[in-house]
Specification:
The protein is an alpha+beta fold. It has helices at 5-13, 54-59, 78-81, 85-94, 97-110, 114-125, 129-147, 152-159, 164-175, 179-185, 209-218, 266-277, 283-290, 297-302, 314-323, 329-343, 376-391, 402-410, 417-426, 439-448, 454-460, 468-476, and strands spanning 24-27, 32-34, 48-51, 63-64, 196-201, 225-228, 231-238, 241-249, 254-260, 345-346, 356-357.
Length: 488
């Protein structure tokens, strides 16, 4: 995108917010960089320079605009749409892997050498993994400086900086303000509770919250998730501790309330919440292609901007997918709740009714199959999955390879197309996953005059690629399901 100068110029001149996060505009006469929708008067074309990432603009010597806050724009949708090395690396960087494990750890997770990873990431983004992680740390620091009254030394530590000096230098370089000046400009900053933070999660419009929050609320596991006072709340297992998040839809952002036991987990928690709600999607591109199909066009026109509800923990979702095989949503929730009570980690939630973290696969490794109120075949399927996740035979991590994960899952006993594609859609985040054998999809296909048999429907769905997971959301909307509505 950033190499198409003419298209970028048009986006800047029209202040088109759809392209926020796709590229960044640097202005050589002012030394700042902005998002395309920056409200200031657009600069002259000859003074514009375009960069693929905030880190690349920073590396070129530009500082962030104080008006439009380009670092806080939605992420580029391509990192969630693609499955190549750079996209996998970007998902891992967003999850904080470089801060925790360094570039060596990032490369090890991807299965490539450090040199290969650095070369390919730099070639596409104009900055290496360290620079990208630095830009993310700067944004985390800004959030903490502006929304809390934490001492600056604690902010530096929580944001992932090695020293207070590095923190100060980075903030001055990126924002052209000292941390104290940044805080003094913020309005209403307060420390409401230990670890408590209120954030705004931006997204590209349109966004239809009904299926997104309706699905999460309808499938919520008691103790781990709940719908309370117009917000979806859940517990989070994070690298340095745990947290509780509250996510409430508003017309122009998602209101996010985080309570963390360790503020170093802020970047990872924010990234996982964005992933859960599919907030970095490009709904215009998705809907444009799906609406080209005359059968889907009325569904898209009625409620544009549907997202794919995902998960904050891929292993958790895989376990829940097996528990949900051939049973109702209510029965799946009951099975999951029993596992949580028996094997989950208890936590305290001062603001609601959450009680546990969902158990890890290793927590369930010694599970007595006789305690599971389900058919023997499904017990065997669940135990096989737990063994595969614990041993590393199946890799569902955010930076994993989607095709390899599919093959690994398909090789497990009791894993058919529905389970594999459901996990690919919700846990792996593959935008082209397609559950052709799902009962709701079959009923929708019949109502719309589409082929009902899986083979015929898969062939018909070729025109929806690479957005078949989004087509699933629109097809489900044809039925009177609770997952299509936000609870009253």
């Amino acid at each position: 995108m950033y190499e198409d100068t003419e298209r970028c110029v048009r986006a800047v001149q029209s202040k088109d917010e759809r392209f926020d996060g796709w590229f960044f505009t640097a202005v050589v006469t002012t030394g700042i960089y902005c998002r395309p929708s920056c409200p200031v008067v657009p600069p002259k074309v000859e003074n514009m320079r375009f960069h693929p990432s905030a880190a690349a603009a920073q590396a070129a010597g530009f500082r962030a605009c104080k008006r439009c806050r380009p670092n806080a724009s939605p992420g580029s949708p391509q990192w969630n749409e693609r499955a190549d090395l750079v996209a996998r690396a970007m998902r891992l960087i967003a999850d904080g892997v470089v801060d925790r494990e360094g570039v060596t750890g990032l490369a090890a997770r991807l299965g490539y050498s450090v040199r290969q990873v650095e070369r390919q990431v730099y070639a596409e983004l104009g900055a290496g993994p360290l620079a990208l992680a630095r830009a993310q740390r700067a944004e985390t620091a800004r959030l903490l400086v502006e929304t809390t009254r934490m001492p600056m030394g604690d902010v530096a530590h929580a944001a992932g900086f090695a020293s207070l000096r590095t923190f100060n230098d980075t903030v001055r370089t990126v924002f052209a303000l000292t941390p104290s000046e940044l805080r003094s400009r913020a309005k209403g900053a307060e420390q409401a509770s230990p670890g408590g933070l209120s954030l705004r999660l931006p997204f590209r419009k349109p966004l239809c919250p009904d299926n997104l929050f309706g699905h999460l609320a309808a499938t919520a596991v008691p103790g781990v998730e709940e719908w309370r006072d117009g917000a979806y709340r859940r517990t989070l297992r994070l690298p340095h501790g745990h947290g509780v998040v509250s996510l409430r839809p508003t017309p122009d952002h998602i209101a996010c309330r985080l309570n963390l036991t360790d503020l170093r987990d802020l970047a990872a928690a924010t990234s996982r919440c964005r992933w859960l709600l599919d907030l970095d999607a490009d709904p215009v591109a998705v809907d444009e292609q799906l609406a080209a199909d005359p059968e889907l066009a009325p569904l898209v026109a009625k409620n544009p901007g549907r997202r794919v509800p995902r998960t904050t923990d891929p292993d958790e979702f895989a376990v829940r997918a097996v528990l949900g095989q051939q049973v109702s949503t209510a029965a799946a929730r009951t099975h999951a709740a029993r596992l949580v009570l028996a094997h989950g980690t208890a936590i305290e939630d001062r603001e609601g009714g959450l009680t546990h973290l969902f158990p890890l696969p290793q927590d369930l490794a010694g599970l007595d199959p006789e305690t599971l109120a389900m058919p023997k075949s499904r017990r065997s399927t669940l135990l096989g999955l737990l063994d595969a996740l614990t041993s590393g035979e199946v890799d569902l991590t955010v930076g994993g390879d989607w095709d390899r994960a599919r093959a690994q899952l398909a090789g497990l006993r009791g894993f058919g197309p529905w389970t594999v594609e459901t996990i690919a859609m919700r846990a792996l985040g593959d935008p082209d996953a397609f559950v052709a054998t799902d009962l709701g999809i079959k009923l929708a296909a019949e109502a719309l005059g589409l082929p009902v048999k899986p083979a015929g429907l898969i062939e018909r769905a070729e025109r929806w690629r690479p957005w078949r997971a989004y087509a699933v959301q629109y097809l489900w909307a044809t039925g009177d399901h609770a997952v299509n509505r936000i609870p009253a």
